[in-house]
UniProtKB/TrEMBL annotation:
Domain of life: Bacteria
Natural source organism: Propionicimonas paludicola
Pfam families for this protein: Bact_transglu_N, Transglut_core
Database matches in PANTHER family: BLR5614 PROTEIN-RELATED, SLL1049 PROTEIN
Protein name, UniProt field: Transglutaminase-like putative cysteine protease
Keyword tags: Hydrolase, Protease
Length: 281
């Protein structure tokens, strides 16, 4: 039986002056998957905007919108009710030989590519390569690699910026969920294991009261290929469960930002975010 959650995600921009127009994309609608049923969802935008909704290349729901009137603040509110069931914690299994086949690599090439955002640096690449050599199966290497990342890198809010590279996170030994995921992606891909970024939400309490609104947070975890996509939350050292709500997947954070856009007018803006999660049953 699934867990029913209500998520309210408020975000937007405060501009330092008047903006004549803005063009934006919101990725704030939970994905419909075998483990996650979206019962209801809506996206409210103020000022009123022209909108177009589509599913992007990676399978994430996107609402593109344009505000053509002058405004000094943009508010976007996503309200969703989701039923989350049991997620795959262990895959069917895959052998190293299969990961090395040309046809497999060609199929998963995008989730094997190491961009500058996820490049873990020489030391962690070496650790990943050694794990691939020493572990009998890819899933064992995943556990070993993520374990090394967690040993070295502490979760420290405010220690990095959105553009901080994975290699720099490894050096300063601190980061947030996005950084731990980027390190994991780069390291697993260095070992030849396809891995992808997952954005979403997580309930902050392991024992929430039904009907009680809790201040939640946007969150990130990863999925790696083990005969199927298997989730792993490096920040909390768990397999994502029924308190994780999946919104987007991609190669890294920059494929799935909740809100991004361009505007004409003032020189600067301030992004604000607030997430509330309620267990309904």
């Amino acid at each position: 039986m699934g867990r029913q959650l209500r998520v309210v995600h408020r975000t937007g921009y405060r501009y330092t002056g008047l903006v004549s127009a803005s063009h934006n994309e919101a990725r704030m609608t939970p994905r419909a998957t075998r483990e996650q049923f979206v019962q209801a969802t809506r996206l409210d935008i103020n000022p009123v905007a022209w909108t177009h909704t589509f599913t992007d290349y990676w399978g994430t729901s996107v609402t593109a919108f344009e505000v053509a009137e002058p405004h000094q603040r943009l508010d976007v509110v996503a309200v969703s009710t989701v039923e989350v069931g049991d997620r795959l914690a262990v895959g069917p299994g895959v052998e190293w030989a299969e990961l090395a086949e040309d046809s497999f690599i060609d199929k998963h090439i995008e989730m094997l590519a190491i961009s500058e955002h996820v490049d873990p640096g020489a030391e962690l690449r070496r650790i990943a390569t050694e794990a691939a050599r020493d572990c009998a199966r890819p899933a064992e290497a995943v556990a070993a690699i993520i374990g090394r990342i967690r040993e070295r890198v502490a979760y420290v809010p405010g220690s990095t910026q959105v553009n901080t590279r994975a290699a720099d996170v490894w050096e300063i030994q601190a980061g947030v969920c996005q950084d731990l995921v980027h390190l994991g992606l780069g390291a697993l891909r260095s070992a030849g294991i396809p891995a992808r970024y997952v954005s979403g939400y997580v309930m902050p309490s392991a024992t929430p009261v039904v009907g009680e609104v809790r201040v939640g947070e946007s969150h990130a975890w990863l999925q790696y290929w083990d005969g199927a996509w298997v989730g792993l939350d490096p920040t909390n050292d768990v397999a994502p469960g029924d308190f994780h709500v999946e919104v987007g997947v991609g190669r890294d954070y920059f494929d799935v930002p909740p809100l991004k856009g361009v505007y004409s007018g003032t020189e600067s803006s301030d992004l604000f975010v607030e997430v509330e999660i309620t267990v309904l049953g």
